Amino acid sequence: MPSPELPSRPLSDDPPPQNSRLLAVVLWLILVGGLAALPMVWPADGVERSTLAQFFGRFHPLVLHFPIALLAIVPLMELAGLFERGRSIRSAAGFVLTLGAISTVAASVLGWLLAWAGGYAGDLVNQHMWFGCTLSLVSLLAVLLRRVWTNRGWWSVGVFYLPTLLAALGLMTWTAHQGGQLTHGEKFLEEHMPAPVRDWLGLPAPAPKKKPVAAAASHATPSVSGTAVESGGTAPAELSFFHDRIMPALDRTCVSCHNPNKIKGGLRMDTYAELMKGGESGAAVVPGNLEESELYRRITLPHDDEEFMPSGGKKPLSEEETRLIEQWIKAGASETAPLSAFGLKATPPAPVVVVKPTAPDHRSHAAVIHAWEKAWGLRLVPVSQVPTDGLILRTASAPSRCTNEALAGLAALADLVVDAELARTRVTDAGMPALAACHSLRRIDLTQTAVTSKGVKALEGLKSLEQLNLTGTGVDEAGLSVFRSRSDLRIYAAHTAASAP
Ligand code: HEC
User: Fold this and answer.
1) What is the CATH number of domain 362-499?
2) Element (H, E) at 174
3) What is the pLDDT of residues 103-139, one digit of tens each?
4) Cα 156 from Cα 148, distance rounded (Å)
5) Which of the four pLDDT bands, split at 50, 70 and 90, describes residue 219?
6) Which of 269, 295, 298, 301 for mutating ligand 1's site (highest number of atoms within 8 Å of CB)?
7) Which of 49, 162, 198, 246 could bridge 117 with an S-S bond, Cβ 3.0-4.6 Å?
8) Which residues pair with residue 227 across a beta bridge?
9) Ligand 1, residues at Cβ distance < 6 Å
10) Phi, psi of 391 (to 5 degrees)
11) What is the residue extent of each domain of the chain?
């Protein structure tokens, strides 16, 4: 009874396999119970344990790639079986699935070992463990159901096996994502996500990057573009030395390993209270006593000392930061002692830079823009995805269509146009007043047009103008003289009377 399509039961059917089946079920139940027990009985509680357990646990990041690849390939192998030539591929799917399930169990056990022994803690770690164990169970179930399918025939496949396999894939994706969040930070995927995808997923806009306070203090010059506005800020008297000078340094250098999700050495440094609680070896900070303060000892050891902090070759605290910590501990390690108690002034609050929109939002003028484009066969193109960045008047595809009348037709859209590409068009001096009405204009290109000094003078009032290209026009010195005082304006006047020697 050769069945070339799907290899099924063991070759000899004679001894009723009751006993071995029972054994399999018992083994399976033990495995299921054991896996579920791991995160339940021994959750990741932030306490570091046996180094040997940690050693093995650290193979988790290596092993976890096997189930990802193996499970992902199973549905492809099953699909291949739909085609004549893919039959043999599908007959191996059961083997790959079994390997995948076994490696899932291995990755789960190692992952649990890493979390339990490695001082991890927190909701994300524990959830990740639960998902990992559930994934193992679901993949084992898929192995079982596939056997049922191959033994009992097609009717069971759609009902049991396929949904289970898909569930395993879904669980795997989510578990892997959580693992990624644990190693790279929770916002890793989100950080550079394009805005449309972010909107579609309903994620909030990214928070603006915070400057480390210590760094901001040394070069607090606001960016030049736009208007700088003083923000309200906290009353300087209330700023504490700890929060203004110590915490930002710890945040940058230490908190990545000493936080609620990863409590290395049993020490959390994400809040003042946790820091003062200390770690496994007792107090990290003893107010007023540098010698007794483990934290100070750790940061002042030689950098190659095993106990030096931050460990793992991370960028150490600067000398200045170390000195501040010394000062702070000596003075009693208070959370609230103000900066003035240390003879320091508050870091001025970072100025809020209000960038003025370049032009009004063009979206509400869509109908007018479209009508103008149609009437003249020219284009008004947004500068960027920011709707207040203005429009570019684009004529390159048909410069001859752009006339003084087309410019006059822009009246209703005048303040939206920031860039007028008028090179080789038919505009003349008579069209310049219409152009001058577009007072958001930053750039105008009049290369090889009939424009002369007379027309150019009309553009004098364009205060935002940054670039004016008059190459090959009839402009002379007199025309340029009106812009003499504008140091921010770049004028190109090659091949004109003004450029003649
Ligand atoms: C790369 C991870 C990592 C970083 C970053 C790190 N630590 Fe640690 N820290 C550890 C580990 C692991 C231990 C436990 C092993 C040990 O005691 O050396 C520890 C232990 C400690 C302890 C001893 C806790 C106790 O009670 O035993 C102190 C104090 C400490 N760190 C301070 C710091 C300070 C201060 C920084 C920042 C300057 C820092 N750590 C940055 C990994 C890190």
Assistant:
1) 3.80.10.10
2) helix 162-184
3) 999 999 999 999 888 877 777 888 999 999 999 999 9
4) 8
5) very low
6) 298
7) 49
8) 354
9) 253-254, 256-258, 264-267, 278-281, 284, 294-295, 298-299, 307, 309-312, 314, 317
10) -120, 150
11) 18-188, 238-353, 362-499
